[in-house]
């Protein structure tokens, strides 16, 4: 998707009225080619409200926010658009408390809106990691309760991480390419396999530590296992693990297991686009418009149903 760079000044000017936001929603949804969401008919008539479109064949009335993540919100579209901008462009995101304070909205509304933005940040899984990929797991928060190493009894959050390594043999310092992470229940082969299947190309050269859980995956993937040496052989992975932990601790303080994936989506959506962060607001806005709202989320959040 080709999108242009957009500063906060330009963004505010572009979306400073409800009408401009509604017009943009319709433009992204249909462009010049209307197709009814219900029956796919291309015949349209004027809808109930100014920017609505009604299907001539089945009568379905499509409002600008229908079938988008902006549907039935308690906040104005102008506010929602700018909040989305802030979540995208701030290098470390923005906490729910800060959103409440800056936009004068209640915590539930801020929290639920952030969930929506994070939903749109989910990886499409169309571009798996390639080349040299390092994989490791780590734990965050919770109590150890005397558990050691990779104990599945620990109530800490368990996360599996895969990172593209861009080798620089002359400077002996590698760079980090793209990366993804998934929450895991335990460190079994079945749980570890999830990140391979979702985010790593079958052609990638994968390196892990000597954990036995990776061994059975060698039949499907090109995996080399080397000694971790306390993380010394995987420095890039460990830098990223530290960054994730600091991000959670510093911005969000605490994350529940239920919402962990959404936060990881946000972290890696931003991380994987770090070299063109100014393009992200319009890119994310388009994703939010093209994503269908999930019924479960709508019924349980602070949006009008
Ligand atoms: Zn129709």
Quick summary:
The protein is α/β, with parallel strands linked by helices and 305 residues long. Helices cover 37% and strands 14% of the residues.
Structural class: alpha/beta
Each distinct ligand: zinc ion
Q: Please summarize the sheet with the most strands.
A: 5 strands, mixed
Count of discrete alpha- or pi-helical segments spanning 4 or more residues = 10
Number of domains: 2
User: What helical percentage do the residues reach?
Assistant: 25-40%
Please provide the ordered H/E string of secondary-structure elements.
Answer: HHEEEHHHEEEHEEHHHH
Q: How many beta-strand runs?
A: 8
Largest beta sheet: what is the strand line-up?
Answer: 6-5-4-7-8
Uncertain runs are 296-305
What is the mean pLDDT?
Answer: 88
Distance N to C terminus: 31 Å
Give the amount of beta strand, in percent: 5-15%
Shape: elongated
**What is the gyration radius calculated from CA atoms?**
22 Å
What does this structure look like?
With 305 residues, the protein is α/β, with parallel strands linked by helices. It folds into 2 domains: 8-120 and 273-299, no CATH class; 132-244. The protein has 10 helices and 8 strands. The chain has helices spanning 8-14, 18-30, 77-89, 96-103, 107-120, 189-199, 235-252, 260-271, 280-290, 295-299, and strands at 44-46, 53-55, 61-62, 132-140, 157-166, 175-183, 205-208, 222-225. The strands form 2 sheets. A 5-stranded mixed β-sheet has the order 6-5-4-7-8, with helices on both faces. Strand 1 (44-46) and strand 2 form a beta hairpin. Helix 3 (77-89) packs across helix 9 and helix 5 packs across helix 8 (260-271). The longest helix is centred in the C-terminal third of the chain and has 18 residues, at 235-252. The two termini are 31 Å apart. Residues 296-305 have low confidence and may be disordered. Residues 36, 38-39, 41, 55, 57-58, 60 line the site of zinc ion.
């Amino acid at each position: 998707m080709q999108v242009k760079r957009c500063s906060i000044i330009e963004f505010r000017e572009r979306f400073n009225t409800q009408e401009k936001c509604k017009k943009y929603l319709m433009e992204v949804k249909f462009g010049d080619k209307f197709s009814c969401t219900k029956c796919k008919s291309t015949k349209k008539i004027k809808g109930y409200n100014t920017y609505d479109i009604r299907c001539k064949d089945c009568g379905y009335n499509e409002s600008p926010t229908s079938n988008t993540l902006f549907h039935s919100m308690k906040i104005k579209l102008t506010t929602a658009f700018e909040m989305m901008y802030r979540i995208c462009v701030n290098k470390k995101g923005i906490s729910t408390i800060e959103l409440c304070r800056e936009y004068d909205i209640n915590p539930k509304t801020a929290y639920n809106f952030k969930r929506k933005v994070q939903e749109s940040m989910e990886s499409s899984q169309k571009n798996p990691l390639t080349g040299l990929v390092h994989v490791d797991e780590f734990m965050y928060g919770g109590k150890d309760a005397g558990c050691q190493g990779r104990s599945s009894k620990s109530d800490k959050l368990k996360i599996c991480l895969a990172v593209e390594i861009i080798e620089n043999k002359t400077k002996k310092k590698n760079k980090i390419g793209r990366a993804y992470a998934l929450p895991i229940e335990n460190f079994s082969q079945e749980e570890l396999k999830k990140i391979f299947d979702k985010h790593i190309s079958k052609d990638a050269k994968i390196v892990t530590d000597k954990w036995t859980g990776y061994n059975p995956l060698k039949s499907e993937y090109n995996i080399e296992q080397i000694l971790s040496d306390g993380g010394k052989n995987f420095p890039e992975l460990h830098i990223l693990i530290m960054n994730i932990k600091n991000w959670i601790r510093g911005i969000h303080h605490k994350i529940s297991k239920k919402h962990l994936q959404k936060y990881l989506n946000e972290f890696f959506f931003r991380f994987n686009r770090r070299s063109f962060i100014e393009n992200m607001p319009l890119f994310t806005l388009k994703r939010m418009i093209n994503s269908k709202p999930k019924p479960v989320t709508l019924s349980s959040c602070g949006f009008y149903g």
